[in-house]
Amino acid sequence: MSLLATVLPWAIGAFVIALALNAWRLLRGPTLADRILALDTLYINTIALLVLLGMQLRTELYFEAALVIGMLGFVGTVVLSKYVLRGDIVE
Amino acid sequence: MTSPPLWLDALVALLVVVGAAFALVGSWGLAKLSDFLKRLHGPTKATTLGVGCVLIASALMFSVVKGAPSLHELLITLFLFLTAPVSAHLLIKTAVKLGVSDTPPPPPD
Predict the structure, then answer these.
(1) Within an 8 Å CB–CB cutoff, is residue A27 touching chain B?
(2) What's the total number of domains in chain B?
């Protein structure tokens, strides 16, 4: 897969730039909702970065990590939003 | 490891490039746009689509490399596509609660 081997480092670089942009919004974000949105995007981009790393290294070791990050990231977004909405998490 | 045909190599490479481009555009929109409701567009549409493309490319590549169907990635894709609208809806409700865009700016002269 020579075409893929040519393309993969550029794709990984693009995702690293995307992560940096998300981190900038996370640090700067004027409102709390911006910060929660930045965290949400950050974990989604991290999943893609882990999958690309697995393709580069030809290993399936990272899929479970990506799956766990996906589930815990979604739970984190829900919990943060609920906390802002109601001032409480478990009712 | 079997050597894959050229069209499959090109398809996987194209999916990776398109996915990376979508994710970069989505994150750029998150960093650049001016209003929270505008900023919500980029990640919830472009980034989710980009990650979906990358995951499908990975599923294709590992199916070819191993010689057997590889379905882990479809699990992650399904989970992401199920949870993205839910989290976007919760973020909108959070923004409404916080009053992020109650008073829109006046139009320019």
Answers:
(1) no
(2) 1
> Domain of B16?
6-96
Task: Report the 3 state secondary structure along chain A.
Answer: CHHHHHHHHHHHHHHHHHHHHHHHHHHHCCCHHHHHHHHHHHHHHHHHHHHHHHHHHCCCCHHHHHHHHHHHHHHHHHHHHHHHHHCCCCC
Residue contact B50–A77, C-beta within 8 A = no
Asked, for residue B87, whether it belongs to a domain, the answer is yes
Span A14-60, pLDDT tens digits? 999 999 999 999 998 788 889 999 999 999 999 999 999 998 998 88
**Rounded to two decimals, what is the model's pTM?**
0.87
Look up the ipTM and state it: 0.86
Nearest-CA distance A67 → chain B (Å): 6
